[in-house]
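To make this tangible, this section ends with a sequence with its structure tokens:
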Amino acid sequence: MKPNTPGGGQTKPETQEAEAAAPPLAHMLRLTLKRLDAIHRERLATIDLTPQQVEVLSALKGNGGMRQSDLARRVGMDPATMAELAARLEERGLMRRAPHRKDRRALAVYLTPKGRRRLMKALPLLAEADALFLARLQSKQKKPLLNALMRLAGMETEKERAK
């Protein structure tokens, strides 16, 4: 039998069967995100925002004046989608765009006071939605899950930030 575990040891046949029976990771993650997104959308609809809009407003908090293209990269959005979303947020007075001070060809984006107030209303709604979503887990399962997701997303965990 060939080594088939990360440490090079053997896995038990019942472990192999359980792993083979589990749906692909991408499928499970997609379903999980779909469920969480539905809860977020429901909560944020009460203040007329979407999860994507909150993500953009959050990225702007404390980072005003960044290029719109840098904002798109930061939130993992293609530039065309960012341009459309930014135009909608600007129309609603939640952000503003102006020529970048160092590169007049680029647009700089800023969170407006109205956008900041709306973001401050959105954050507790998202925390409430997250708590509702995670309620299916035992308390001791939540922190390891969040740390694993942060690591997989390429983000620092709480423990790594403390170092």
